[in-house]
Amino acid sequence: MTAYYDALETRDQAVREAELFSRLPGVLRSAMTAPAYAERLKGLDPASVTSRAALAGLPVLRKSELPALHKASTPFGGFVAAAPGSFARLFTSPGPIFEPEGRQADPWRGARALFAAGFRPDDVVLNTFSYHLTPGGFIFDASARALGCAVIPAGPGNTEQQFELIEAYRPVGYSGTPDFLKILLDAAASTGRDVSSIKRALVSGAAFPPSLQAEIRARGIDAYQAFGTADLGLIAFETTARDGMVVNEDLIMEIVKPGTGDPVTEGDVGEIVVTSLDPHHPWIRLALGDLTAALPGPSQCGRTNMRIRGWMGRADQTTKVKGMFVRPEQIAEIGRRHSALGRLRLVVTRQGEADAMTLKAETAITSDALREEIAGTLRAVTKLGGNVELVSPGALPNDGKVIADER
């Protein structure tokens, strides 16, 4: 039994980068046959985009924009050149956002995540993600079948029928939310049903705090987390090393300053941006609105791809102050106008019965003149007045928070 899904997982990172970016120009050419990408990337020479620095110069496409774009140009907002009939399945997620499933084997790139969690060919897997209109159930179903597993398409709910299936088919694996796994285990314990065949799990779609991890482990199930979306499938996953999540193959992940497309300083928390390399349905710099940070070095399990700390919250911190929206990209613009500044955080509070803002700015320069200049920029950019507090470099938390609403 091999320790890895394939040789791609342990190749030198420089080799991986070279291979991914050698494919990117062709993917960009395919993307630009779709009208929306053609407009967004107008004037671009795809052959020039062969590095992370060059990729960072392209505009980001925010997932939060997709509902309006899909409504304006159904079904895919003009970002897919292929006809809907060229795909295998067609889904919708809240928004609505319309998502197609490709016809290739493992279209959601999940087989290697299941493998890393201990799933193997011929395992029986209980899949409790929903199969109704949204892609969740099919993401894990297709991934397990690509690995060679048999899948029980259980979906969520109806624990009594689930127990009948578990006792009949004796699944060794579970895929679903960690919350529903606990519901199943609790219900089985209270009713005397036998679910002891389940020994491993790949969970996603909800928080999996250490207390719940310990409880699941104590019940004899080795559970791992995966991070994915309905647009891209499985993006990153835990391994036996339990040292963060390893980014999936065939994806280029960037971590950018919230509200911008600019890469963060190495190790800083920022927003996840993903470029996929499927020419039939490419995503070019899709900003997911989720926060994470890169971890240094390869995983101790031997997989060499980029590691991240996992999901660390939402990047969209837009808030309303005195009736006006203040956005992370506005705070980033203040930083661009003052090169002496490091991390910034706008703290919104109440003073008396009115909203109040304080911009905390890291800088090695502490002068009243700089404070006044920044206050002027804050007003010019946000159209709102606020205080400015200069703090020493490193004083603000590395948590990706740009706007802290403390009202």
Quick summary:
Helices cover 28% and strands 26% of the residues. The protein contains eleven helices and 21 strands.
What labels describe this entry?
407 residues, nine-stranded mixed sheet, four-stranded mixed sheet, 11 helices, 28% helix, ANL_N_sf, ligase, AMP-bd_C_sf
Structural notes for this entry:
InterPro entries: AMP-bd_C_sf, AMP-dep_synth/lig_dom, ANL_N_sf. It comes from Bradyrhizobium cosmicum. The chain is α/β, with parallel strands linked by helices and 407 residues long. The chain contains 11 helices and 21 strands. The strands form 5 sheets. Strands 5-4-6-7-8-9-10-15-14 form a 9-stranded mixed sheet, with helices on both faces. A 4-stranded mixed sheet has the order 1-13-12-11, with no helix packed on it. It has a 4-stranded mixed sheet with strand order 20-19-18-21, with helices on one face. Helix 10 (328-337) crosses helix 11. The longest helix is centred in the N-terminal third of the chain and has 19 residues, at 13-31. The model has no long low-confidence stretch (mean pLDDT 94).
Q: Topology of this structure?
A:
Layout: H1 13-31, H2 35-40, H3 52-55, E1 61-62, H4 66-72, E2 89-93, E3 97-101, H5 111-116, E4 124-127, H6 136-147, E5 150-153, H7 159-169, E6 173-176, H8 178-191, E7 200-203, H9 210-218, E8 222-229, E9 233-238, E10 245-247, E11 251-256, E12 270-276, E13 286-292, E14 294-295, E15 307-308, E16 319-321, E17 324-326, H10 328-337, E18 341-351, E19 354-363, H11 368-382, E20 387-391, E21 403-405
Parallel strand pairs: 1-13, 4-5, 4-6, 6-7, 7-8, 18-21, 19-20
Antiparallel strand pairs: 2-3, 8-9, 9-10, 10-15, 11-12, 12-13, 14-15, 16-17, 18-19
Helix pairs in contact: 10-11
